[in-house]
Amino acid sequence: MALIWKIPQFGLGNDTMNARERLQMTDDDITSHFDRFGYRVSIDQIAFVGETVDDFREARKRKWFRAGSLRKNEPGLLVIEDAQPRQGQRTRDIIVISLGPTRIVMGIEIKPGAPPLAPGDAICRYALAMEWPIPEPPKPITAPKMVGSRA
Q1: Are 145 and 33 in contact (CB under 8 A)?
Q2: Helix, strand, coil distribution of the chain in percent, nearest 5
Q3: Which of the four, 25, 57, 61, 63, has the lowest number of CB atoms within 10 Å?
Q4: pLDDT digits (tens, 9 = 90+) for 131-141
């Protein structure tokens, strides 16, 4: 019999355990972390991710359109002002805070008409694009057209 380790921070094992569920804090406790830096946000504006703070540092350095300026760059904390992760996005401040098994992120661009932010995990990554788009409807499957004629 093989042993299967459940590693929620990597999205393996228990599929129902997302990044928000791993964080045993109230919504008010979570939003108070952003209050300390002068930002008033609601819980719906915060993304809960499994990505590390270093993932966001690396994405900022190598992938973002305009990296913005670092206000704080400490272990487990990243505060960036006037960043523009992708061309065409608005410029904004971004904060990434590590709270043990989960990181909380302010500054994800939520596209108009998009559903609420998904609780991040290994399959839901925000660092590179920093946006949450409207889900695209599935494309209809069309049967291949027959070429030629019957005799």
Answers
A1: no
A2: 20, 25, 55
A3: 61
A4: 666 666 667 77
